[in-house]
Amino acid sequence: EYAQAIEAYRQALELSPSDVETLTALGVDSTRQKQFEQALSYFEQAQQIDPGFEPCYGYRIVTYSQMGRHDKAEEMFYLARQLVEDCPLCYFNIGNSHYIRGNYAHAIDCWRQTLRIDERHGQTHSRIADAYWARDNLEKALEHYRAELAITGQQEGTLQDIRDVLRQMHATAKPSRSGLSGLCQKLLAKLTQ
C-alpha cells in the first residue's frame, strides 16, 4: 500500500521536482516503510526548497523518534521553533518522543501546547489520556478520552480505551470509594450495550 503511494509520489515529483508537499509525503511514507535514511533525504530536500514548511519539521521528528534518535528529534523540534514558533505538529510529535522514553510529564506538557495552538488537533486528548493512564491517574485519563470523543465522535478505539479505564477503575475502587465503583459499573454497562 505505501509502496504504491511512494511510486505515485515519485511520478508526481518528476513533473514538479520542487513540490515540498510531495517531497514531504514521500518522506512520511518512507518512514512508514522504515526506510528512514530515504525519508530524511526527502525531508532535507523539502527543507532546502522551503525552510519554513512546518510539516517537514514535524515529520522529521517522527522519523528520528522511530529511529530511536531522540536527541535528533529534540534538535529538529528546537530548530522548527526558531522558524515557526507555534507548530502544533511539532509539539505533538515531540510529545510522542517524550512518551516513548517514559517522560510522561514532558509529553503531557507538549501535548497541552499542541492544544493551545490547535484545540481540535486530532488524537491529542487520547495521547494525554494515555500518559495519564501510564501514570495511574485514571480519572484524568478518562477525562481526556472523553474530550477526544467530543472532538472526533464515536471512535471505536477511544471507546475501547474508555471501557478499559472504567474496568480498571472498578477493579481498583476502594471500599471508601464504593460510589465510584458503582458509577464505573453503570458506565461500563452503558458502553457495552
Keywords:
193 residues; mainly alpha; 79% helix; elongated
What features would you describe in this structure?
With 193 residues, the protein is mostly helical. It has 11 helices and no strands. α4 packs parallel to α6 (88-100). The longest helix has 17 residues, at 156-172.
- The chain-level mean pLDDT equals 89
- Which structural category do the helix and sheet elements fall into? mainly alpha
Large-scale geometry:
elongated
Fraction in beta strands: under 5%
- Give Rg in angstroms: 20 Å
Helix content: over 70%
**Secondary-structure element order, N to C:** HHHHHHHHHHH
Query: Which stretches are low in confidence, meaning pLDDT under 50 for 5 or more residues running?
Result: none
Number of helices: 11
Number of strands: 0
The N- and C-terminal alpha carbons lie at a distance of 35 Å
In short, what is this structure?
With about 190 residues, the protein is an all-alpha fold. Helices cover about 80% and strands about 0% of the residues.
Mind sketching the topology for me?
Blueprint: H1 2-15, H2 20-32, H3 36-49, H4 54-66, H5 70-83, H6 88-100, H7 104-117, H8 124-134, H9 138-152, H10 156-172, H11 178-191
